[in-house]
């Protein structure tokens, strides 16, 4: 029986037993008998919330009153220990439907107590964190990550990463930060590889975070412990190392995020190489941007087209800016208009709105610049403005039509 058959049967029954439409509507409304149960449920929730708040407030008041009598280990246990226990308990509550609502306050308790315990621990050791405490903090943090990834809690993963990262880097010496950068960056990279087939959407940000941490750690290491001239040689070496690392990972796993990071380090390597070779700024950026535009076109027709938009934006913006800098105040500067229109045509072929916006804005801005340079005294600035206005309206209308027809 489908929906139409059910409605027809209801109509037949209503006609047979002479049931009015108002009686049907009244019967469909919730009965008044449910009100006492709803009121009881609401009161139970209210009492539970108030009771939980009072218990937590009492524990906090007791800790504050006796705080001066506790030693360092007792303070860390009361804050970091209880906070970590609350975090584990919150994920256990998520597995039981009857206790899922209790997970949120437990998360908040953990978020308050754990950073407090870490700050206390790090302040007591006067910015020099012993290695065994680093191991304990690392274990706690990665347990957080594992639970967050397995439970698909992106917010928990983000907050814990920010809190733990800020605390560790703020309360450790510069030498220890190198180890933390390299260690955490490489662990992020390994975690991304391990969970990529299980929770790829939530673990994809681990790759860029790992790349940033590793790059910072390697650059700091090279600047402090080697005689390599910074920043060009340092960027060259770091880019080569990370290009090989993420390039091999991309060849093995074929993921879009890895492709973007590999391209980033590939172009940063050549940027540093051109700087060391003494290539002029204009030529350097023109070569890099035009080649990236070609790579963007290739990626746009592959299964990695998710990153084509940002690549089109970066490459076209840099190419248009450096090209204008090259032709500005030259007798052939009108050729810039041909480049901008050519990019509009490319945007239509590639069905790229971002490329179309960049090229259209470049066309309009060049028309405005060219008019202000050569026409203000010939015809008069007011007439020139009117002409520019019609040109802007005309070009905008053409762009909108092209967008509707081809995008």
UniProtKB/TrEMBL annotation:
Keyword Transferase: no
Keyword check for Membrane: yes
Spans traversing the lipid bilayer: 46-64, 76-94, 106-123, 129-147, 154-172, 178-195, 202-222, 228-250, 257-277, 306-324, 330-348, 378-400
UniProt keyword annotations, A-Z: Membrane, Transmembrane, Transmembrane helix
Protein's name in the database: DUF2157 domain-containing protein
Native species: Fluoribacter gormanii
């Amino acid at each position: 029986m489908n929906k139409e058959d059910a409605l027809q049967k209801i109509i037949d029954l209503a006609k047979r037993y002479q049931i009015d439409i108002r009686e049907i509507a009244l019967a469909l409304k919730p009965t008044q008998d449910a009100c006492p149960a709803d009121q009881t449920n609401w009161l139970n929730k209210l009492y539970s919330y108030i009771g939980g708040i009072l218990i937590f407030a009492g524990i906090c008041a007791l800790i504050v009153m006796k705080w001066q009598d506790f030693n360092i280990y007792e303070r860390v246990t009361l804050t970091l220990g209880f906070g970590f226990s609350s975090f584990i308990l919150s994920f256990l509550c998520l597995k039981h439907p009857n206790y899922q609502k209790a997970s949120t306050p437990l998360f908040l308790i953990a978020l308050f107590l754990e950073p407090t315990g870490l700050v206390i621990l790090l302040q007591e050791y006067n910015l020099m964190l012993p290695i065994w405490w680093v191991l304990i903090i690392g274990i706690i943090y990665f347990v957080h990550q594992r639970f967050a990834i397995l439970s698909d809690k992106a917010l928990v993963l983000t907050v814990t990463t920010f809190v733990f990262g800020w605390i560790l880097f703020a309360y450790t010496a510069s030498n220890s930060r190198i180890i933390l950068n390299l260690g955490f960056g490489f662990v992020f990279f390994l975690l991304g590889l391990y969970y990529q087939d299980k929770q790829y959407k939530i673990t994809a940000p681990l790759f860029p975070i790992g790349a940033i941490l590793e790059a910072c750690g390697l650059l700091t290491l090279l600047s402090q412990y080697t005689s390599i001239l910074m920043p060009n040689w340092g960027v060259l070496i770091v880019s080569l190392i990370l290009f090989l690392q993420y390039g091999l990972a991309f060849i093995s796993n074929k993921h879009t995020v890895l492709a973007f990071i590999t391209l980033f380090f590939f172009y940063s390597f050549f940027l540093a190489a051109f700087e060391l070779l003494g290539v002029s700024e204009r030529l350097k950026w023109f070569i890099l941007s035009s080649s990236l535009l070609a790579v963007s076109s290739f990626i746009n027709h592959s299964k990695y087209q998710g990153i084509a938009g940002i690549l089109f934006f970066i490459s076209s913006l840099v190419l248009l800016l450096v090209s204008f800098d090259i032709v500005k105040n030259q007798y052939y500067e009108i050729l810039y208009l041909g480049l901008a229109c050519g990019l509009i045509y490319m945007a239509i072929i590639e069905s790229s709105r971002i490329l179309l916006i960049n090229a259209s804005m470049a066309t309009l801005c060049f028309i405005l610049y060219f008019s202000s340079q050569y026409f203000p005294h010939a015809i008069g600035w007011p007439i020139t403005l009117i002409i520019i206005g019609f040109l802007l309206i005309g070009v905008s209308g053409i762009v909108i039509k092209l967008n509707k027809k081809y995008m």
